[in-house]
Specification:
The chain has 2 domains: 244 residues, Aminohydrolase, N-terminal nucleophile (Ntn) domain (Glutamine Phosphoribosylpyrophosphate, subunit 1, domain 1, 4-Layer Sandwich), CATH 3.60.20; 185 residues, Rossmann fold. The protein contains 17 helices and 24 strands. The strands form 6 sheets. It has a 7-stranded antiparallel beta sheet with strand order 3-2-4-1-10-9-11. Strands 5-6-7-8-12-13 form a 6-stranded antiparallel beta sheet, with helices on one face. A 5-stranded parallel beta sheet has the order 18-17-21-22-23, sandwiched between helices. Strand 7 and strand 8 form a beta hairpin. The longest helix is centred in the middle third of the chain and has 15 residues. It is elongated.
Length: 495
């Protein structure tokens, strides 16, 4: 039986990467995917474009289940299989599409009347079922259970005679979240949905252009960040592109929409060293922590230092912001490492008995008793989904005999499922929904001395430099920025 070590966290759909014009395309894509490992750990794939002896473009692919380091462990893959001077890659965490089917591992590749076409997708299409049903009725045969394959069919079935226009037409029919890299016989194409749910950026490495979900994928390759790809924009890179001014740019729709970036990218998903939505993630995460401290400070009743710890690693930066703000407010505090996270446990482990799930948190975390014993402890975390792991963590910290434990969450209570690329469980599984949004009831269930979340307004105020009107908060508020089928379930695609 597979079991995620930390199942109480939201999961992001995927990480994508693309590069054009260098014979090291596959290796650079490998490093880019390695830096995007946090966005998906189930599977990884790379497609390269090479040429045969006749000069005809051919696509080569390698993909498998596992972490990036596992999928490409044999270095000969880059010498004998993934040859060529253009590539796209993908790290997968499934939202729609069975996670157990190797057919669902991206990039997807087809050959149609305009040649080869490969696509990697980060996001979730909210109208995928309707489009898929229409395509099947028209005779389309699907090879996967992923919503991404809908995009390939729409492009391939277009009757337009210009490939870019075909892609533009296909994307205009999509609803929901998509950041894409597309590889053709002679182009690297990147596109982002009109609301810009997921991040996507353009970089440059020497004379070559790269595209990635996050800028940390540029840093590992010493590429320079150029700009973010705009919501609703398609960019085209080919052999004619020598400078940024040569890149062709198209709009998916002439109608401009209000951006609705996923605020969870700042709260949890993106790495703190990335630049997305116009700002550094580290800065925004610290601001969230400071807001938590301003609104929900903790005092030690005996005037001792308050010990602030994070749930490593995603909450580290937020905890820094919390402790810094407490000190500014005159509250004696100290940031400590109270939880040690094991980085060597792998993705999954065998649990022969269901009862052993209760101890799964011990596989990944241990406490530093000397730091916590007899102290007023503030545990800073980014979110609570089901509540099961949070409860286990609190029980673990209790073993150190702290004076009290106070949990501070840098997001609002998650009350609704996400339809835009986060794998939240059903509404009934969400602890906040189970408790009807009553924080005191959640507090009692978790066994903490106090629990506080940021409100939606406080969360948005924290990211005000990035314009709070530009963010999607549907998983907290239930206000979806697009029309969605509320009866949709991920399982309808699974085989």
């Amino acid at each position: 039986m597979k079991l995620n070590y930390y199942p109480d966290k939201p999961k992001c759909h995927c990480g994508i990467f693309g590069i054009f014009g260098t014979n090291e395309a596959a290796a650079l894509t490998y490093y880019g995917l390695h830096s995007l490992q946090h966005r998906g750990q189930e599977a990884s794939g790379i497609v390269t474009r090479d040429f045969n002896n006749s000069g005809k473009s051919i696509f080569k692919i390698h993909k498998a289940e596992g972490l990036v380091s596992e999928v490409y462990a044999d270095s000969n893959i880059f010498k004998t299989i993934l040859t060529g001077n253009a590539a796209i890659g993908h790290n997968r965490y499934s939202t729609t599409g069975s996670s157990d089917s190797i057919n669902n591992i991206q990039p997807f590749v087809v050959n149609y009347r305009f040649g080869n076409l490969a696509v990697s997708h980060n996001g979730n299409l909210t109208n995928a079922k309707r489009l898929r049903d229409e395509l099947v009725d028209e005779g389309a045969i699907f090879q996967t259970t992923s919503d991404t394959e809908v995009i390939l069919h729409l492009i391939a079935r277009s009757r337009l005679d210009n490939q870019i226009e075909q892609i533009k037409e296909a994307l205009s029919k999509l609803e929901g979240a998509y950041s894409l890299v597309i590889l053709t016989d002679d182009k690297l194409i990147a596109a982002r949905d009109p609301l810009g749910f997921r991040p996507l950026s353009l970089g440059k490495l020497n004379e070559n252009f790269v595209v990635a979900s996050e800028t940390c994928a540029f840093d590992i390759n010493t590429a320079k960040f150029v700009r973010e790809i705009n919501p609703g924009e398609i960019i085209v890179i080919d052999n004619s592109v020598k400078d940024i001014t040569d890149i062709q740019s198209y709009n998916i729709s002439e109608k401009l929409s209000q951006s609705k970036h996923c605020i969870f990218e700042y709260i949890y998903f993106s790495r703190p060293d990335s630049f997305i939505f116009g700002h550094n993630v580290d800065k925004m995460r610290r601001r969230l922590g400071k807001m938590l401290a301003k609104k929900y400070p903790v005092h030690d009743p005996d005037g001792k230092k308050v010990i602030v710890i994070s749930v490593p690693d995603s909450s580290n930066t937020t905890a820094i912001g919390y402790e810094t703000q407490l000190e500014k407010m005159g509250i004696s505090a100290k940031l400590e490492i109270g939880l040690i996270r094991s980085h060597y446990v792998g993705r999954t482990f065998i649990q022969p008995e269901q009862e052993k799930r209760k101890n799964s948190v011990r596989i990944k975390f241990n406490i530093v008793k000397g730091v916590l014993e007899g102290k007023t402890v503030v545990l800073v975390d980014d979110s609570i989904v089901r509540g099961t792991t949070s409860k286990q963590l609190i029980n673990l910290i209790r073993e150190a005999n702290p004076k009290s434990i106070h949990l501070r969450i840098s997001s609002s209570p998650i009350m609704h499922p996400c339809y835009y690329g986060m794998d939240f469980p059903s509404k009934e599984e969400l602890i906040a929904c189970q408790m009807n949004g009553d924080v005191k009831s959640i507090e009692k269930y978790l066994g903490v001395d106090s629990l506080e979340y940021l409100t939606i307004d406080e969360m948005l105020e924290s990211v005000s430099e990035a314009n709070p009107n530009n963010f999607c908060t549907a998983c907290f508020s239930g206000n979806y920025p697009t029309e969605v089928d509320l009866s949709f379930k991920k399982e309808i695609y699974e085989i």
